[in-house]
Amino acid sequence: MIRSEFWVVLTLGLALVGVRNRALGDEGMWLFNNPPKEYLKKTYGFEPDQAWLDHVQKSSVRFNSGGSGSFVSPDGLVMTNHHVAADAIQKLSNQENNYLRDGFHARTRSEEKKCVDLELNVLQSIEDVTAAVNAAVKPGMSPEQANAARRGVTAEIEKASLEKTGLRSDVVTLYNGAQYHLYRYKKYTDVRLVFAPEQQIAFFGGDPDNFEYPRYDLDFTFFRVYENDKPVKLEHYLKWSKNGAAENELVFVSGHPGRTSRLNTVAELEYLRDTAFPFLMQRLYRMETNLKVFSDRNSENARRAKDELFGIQNSRKARDGGLAGLLDPALMARKRAQEQKIRDAVKSNPELADVVDAWDRIEAATKKQLEMNRPYAMLEMGAGFNSIYFKIGRTLLRANAEKGKPNGERLREFRDSGLESLEQELFSAEPIYPDLEIVKLSDALTHLASELGTNSPVVQAVLNGKSPRLRAAELVTATKLGSIDIRKKLYAASSDELAAAKEPFVELARLIDEESRALRKKYESEIDEVKRQANSQIAKARYAVEGDRVYPDATFTLRLAFGTVNGFEENGKKVPYVTNFAGLYEHSNEHQGQPPYDLPKRWLDRKDKLDLKVPFNFVCTADIIGGNSGSPVINRNAEVVGLIFDGNIQSLVLDFSYDDVQARAVSVHSAGMIEALKKIYEADELVQELLGTSK
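^ thats the sequence. predicted structure below, dont judge the formating
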């Protein structure tokens, strides 16, 4: 493995501490500028060179809505999951054209539908800026001063990079604060929908399968990226494999895992187990129930709420599995043993004397986090104001205050480097449904009152003497933020003009802004910054004890994972590595074709056209997590053999600890995608483009 300069420096003087190989098997979400080359060469006889890495990196795509994708043709065709694309598909749908339910197919370029506010990012380069960031934090600074200094220098780095390259530039925190890398992205905002199957086949088996082992899902969608009203012409894209994934084959996953907590201390894990996860689960359950009741009223309500409801249910599934892992005494015992080993090594090494109390400092910060959790979530994170209108109103209020400040002093989301993306989202033509917003906001205000108490001055000011339901209806009925022109006018307004407009949701945001900002400032300086400094020190010890196969926790930045295509055992039975089309129909028949095991009509009508032996889904041991959805699965030749869309129930503990005994990533097989496109959807032009046989 290639070590960065940072890690080489850390090893000096630490040779007295024993080294062992930390990663288990094919564990790891690896940085593209620090892949495990030696391990791959030793274990699999394959060493990706720089040209291979650059090609895969620039063929990989990040969706701003959350998820991954890849370029799969020289004409800007992008492949991702249907559930990653669902937000964009929903925004293109209406009462007459329900593309989520019925699917979509543009047979010509002119029929491709431009998405409302979708932004795709393609990583162009990575630069280690750790030294520059750390140099801004001077000895003796308080946590608040250190946080301000760090925020200022990262803003300067991002702005300078943006002005120099024209690329979106983000400073990313790695190893819980031990490293800082500058990621530069090519940004695309003209993205058009090309093809999507019916949601019923993309999410076949619904929650019953989703919460165990989804294995018959055609979870794919295709977009096309345009520039200057023409499809982009690409040098880097992934070609299609002739045969697709085979059993025992080495495969790679290039995607953007959202977040893991594998480097967290035991105190932090206990906080997640005992406080954060239960609180979030409670919120997800009430949001899910609320949207289900709304959806059950009529079919149009169901259409409007479907994508948001699916997202909530998917989040609940992930948290269910994560909490189950944290409640596993064996997992927590392993975490305690691993931590104790590092702490013992630190105590025995005089050169690490400054690290001894790092765990205690994190524990103290975590206790403050426990005290702040509810008010911070309800106010600053917006849990008490669940509405698109509130999000817009707060953005307008804060943009008005932040844009006049020096770039380095602004809240992160209002820095120059991110303003274009913020404005695209703010001025989105996304349809907003007032009746749905009333339902969501009413429930959120009820939650706010129950968490902070009805006697809270903030709650009393927010409700203004009304019930949550009446207050929500009053606000939504009076707002004008559904108009993009109004949003643009208020965004450009002076402070006096914005106040004079008396926009209800701007004023609602104003009511809580002082307290919310104070909470954020305290959280960032007394919790985040304290943990960042302590974790940076712990990283030294962890590296010394565990060796150089150390990768950072996921940060929704591009990572490379790898593994083999293999089945697993469950309850004494072998689960094959692959399913096929025949199994899909058998699975439906076993449930008499009743929802959620009903097949779309065209799948019933065209069954006889299919080769039922063609692979449908498959599993592999690659290390993935939420955010990897839509990631391409490729072989040694960087050819597409599949498309990640989920994991089995055993994989949900991967947030905290890797396991390759039963945990598996689940993918759509490349051969299955082609078979469905040809035989079910008759999308010959799309098949030709994917296979590179277009005329």
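The chain has 25 helices and 22 strands.
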